[in-house]
Amino acid sequence: MVNIALFVARVMIPLMTGESQRSAWRRTSLLFLGHFINDGYGSFFAPLLPLLIDRLDLSLAMAGVMGTTRILINSFTQPVFGQIVDRMKRPFLVALGPLLTIVAMSMIGTVTRSSQLFLVLIIGGIGTALFHPAAAALVGSVKRSRNSGVMMALFSAGGTAGAALAPVLIIPFVAAFGTAKTPYLIIPGLAVVLIFALFLRRNLPVREQSLHDRIRIKNIPQPLAVLWVIIVLRGMAGVTFSSFLAVLVTEKGGSHLVGGAAISIFLITGALGGLLAGKISDRVGRKAVIFTTILLAAPFLLIFLHGPSWTMLPSLGLAGLFLFSSTPVGIVAAQEIMPGKTGLVSGIVMGMAWGVAGLALMPVGWLADRYGLVSVMTWIALLPLIAAILALFYHDMNGKAA
Q1: What is the pTM assigned to this prediction?
Q2: 194: domain CATH number?
Q3: Residue 152's domain spans which residues?
């Protein structure tokens, strides 16, 4: 997986000189691997949701509460861990986070009560919250790089790829060996984390003095506030569609395996789009990419919901491509607004924004039980249009990358 990340970097990026830049690419490639394994294991819940609903007799509203619980634990603690990362000498949270995620989410197949599922999701959420701001801060540690966008895109693609491949791996695994065997997945996960941590230790950045003053709401720059709201609106669409895709597909007549494949298509196209969007944003600026990609997501979400059956997967792929491609661009834009606080800012836009977005799962599940899931998701599909309009008022701090 590290070799794949390095290959992508070499194909898409002109060769760079200087030991610090080479080290940065090695570090980013390793963080791609860490992100892949963390978010891959962290994404077991959505594809297994139909099975868990049957086994635990969960309503869609309760399933929404379950998903929201994990997202809230993951998201609202990220700024706190990000602040810690900005002060730490050694970012060991980068390795500790995936360890918790792997162990917790590998136990999901053994739960027999909703309380046990809650516990698994909470621990998995904490693990993800530990990893994300620490890793994003390491990716953003190289100052004044012309390739900040594509570096963050490569890192982000690792998480999206892991989340995309998780359904097509966990569903066949459960079908072949049963849910009781999911704890055996701890073994390969821990092996990957060990390799990742050992090599990352040799490629840590030189520690720089960072700003330790506390951030206050009144001191948040206006561009960051606008960007945060854009990410929240886009995130509501991304989180709800990702969480209920398997259920939507089965309601439309597809199998559990097709539902898992739909999640994979939705996310993997987003990962590929993120690589391209990061590269383009380094040339034309962050605002243009954020506006264009979010604007184009809504039509394809609506086609997926209401178009002919043969358009379901193609439209879903294009929706994921546009909806998620601005994720790394938004992270880099936020880091550029507040340099010196990469861990904290990354926690705000990666964590807190997605946590607020995740709050939509509860009302969506509740409304879906009453009015139907497709009807409710039609309104959710319009949220990217609102985000795109708001993006017109976002001021790109740096314009084009230097």
Answers
A1: 0.70
A2: 1.20.1250.20
A3: 18-391
